[in-house]
């Protein structure tokens, strides 16, 4: 068995946990087999687990995928590797600072499973949770219904669901969200996710016709495209969303409105023809 490190280092702990999990399912599974599965040499894996030597960013990405980390955990994994084994003190220091911020965000984020997201059939859940953060929120069904242009019945139903799921709690006369951010894994087929996005498209259509121009921004682009760049394009969009959130969702600013950022990237033509 792999010995536990004296100090908790994220990338080392995740690798050890993955190895222990495989050993429990197959007692004959060896560290050499594990190294093969991670596309590392046994000596490189041993040096990595002992904290004597690091791996490149490219190898770190491969390893994080091989041990089944989510996209968010993979980001923390990569920052952990660079913060301990970066080529320069400056690079390591930058990674350490970003790692600390990312870990704080990771711990306060709700990661919905496919099953949990199946219960999200509209935009009401997230909108209500965000409305609770508004500086003038009155924390009553009537106020929330008026602010979100919902019926009192819709708000009551949403509140009951969120309380049952332990995503909000009522304390000292106020509702409070138990998470600062909620996310789900990418590229997972899910009817609940489809219904959720469909409800947002309906809300966007309503906004297009009813909201004044200075309160919204609608843009679109149609372009001929090279299919092999699809993965890179999707990553680019996802990185933009994360950067947008970091810039415009600060914790220390007063919040007085609930907005929705939606980006659609889909194919217009069909194969052949």
List keywords for this structure.
single chain; mainly alpha; two-stranded antiparallel ribbon; 4 strands; 54% helix; globular; disordered N terminus
CATH topology term of the largest domain: Arc Repressor Mutant, subunit A
Distance between the termini: 58 Å
Average pLDDT over all residues: 85
Helix content: 40-55%
Helix count, per DSSP?
12
* Strand fraction: 5-15%
Low-confidence stretches: 1-7
The number of strands is: 4
What gyration radius follows from the Cα positions, in whole Å?
23 Å
- H and E order: HHHHHHEHHHHEEEHH
Shape: globular
Protein structure class: mainly alpha
Molecular structure report:
The protein is mainly α and 273 residues long. The protein folds into two domains: 10-107, no CATH class; 114-248, Arc Repressor Mutant, subunit A. It has helices spanning 10-25, 31-37, 42-49, 57-66, 71-85, 89-107, 114-117, 124-131, 141-148, 152-164, 191-210, 230-248; strands at 109-112, 168-171, 174-177, 181-184. The strands form two sheets. It has a two-stranded parallel ribbon with strand order 1-4. Strands 2-3 form a two-stranded antiparallel ribbon. Helix 2 (31-37) crosses helix 3 and helix 5 runs antiparallel to helix 6. The longest helix has 20 residues, at 191-210. It is globular, with a radius of gyration of 23 Å. The N and C termini lie far apart (58 Å). The relative contact order is 0.08.
């Amino acid at each position: 068995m792999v010995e536990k490190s004296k100090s908790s280092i994220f990338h080392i702990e995740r690798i050890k946990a993955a190895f222990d999990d495989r050993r429990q399912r197959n007692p004959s599974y060896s560290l050499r087999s594990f190294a093969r599965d991670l596309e590392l040499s046994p000596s490189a894996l041993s040096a990595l687990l002992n904290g004597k030597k690091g791996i490149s960013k490219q190898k770190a990405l491969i390893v994080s995928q091989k041990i089944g980390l989510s996209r968010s955990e993979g980001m923390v994994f990569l920052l952990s590797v660079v913060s301990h084994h970066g080529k320069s003190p400056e690079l390591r220091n930058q990674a350490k600072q970003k790692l600390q911020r990312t870990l704080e965000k990771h711990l306060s984020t709700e990661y919905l499973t496919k099953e949990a997201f199946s219960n999200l059939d509209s935009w009401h859940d997230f909108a209500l949770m965000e409305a609770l953060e508004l500086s003038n929120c009155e924390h009553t069904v009537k106020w929330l219904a008026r602010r979100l242009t919902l019926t009192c019945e819709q708000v009551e139903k949403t509140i009951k669901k969120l309380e049952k799921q332990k995503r909000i709690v009522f304390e000292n006369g106020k509702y409070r969200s138990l998470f600062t951010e909620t996310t789900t894994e990418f590229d997972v087929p899910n009817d609940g996710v489809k219904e959720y996005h469909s409800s947002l498209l309906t809300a966007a259509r309503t906004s297009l016709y009813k909201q004044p121009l200075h309160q919204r921004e609608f843009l679109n682009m149609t372009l001929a495209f090279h299919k092999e760049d699809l993965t890179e394009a999707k990553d680019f969009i996802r990185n933009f969303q994360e950067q947008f959130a970091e810039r415009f969702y600060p914790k220390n600013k007063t919040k007085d409105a609930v907005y929705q950022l939606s980006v659609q990237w889909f194919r217009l033509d069909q194969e052949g023809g």
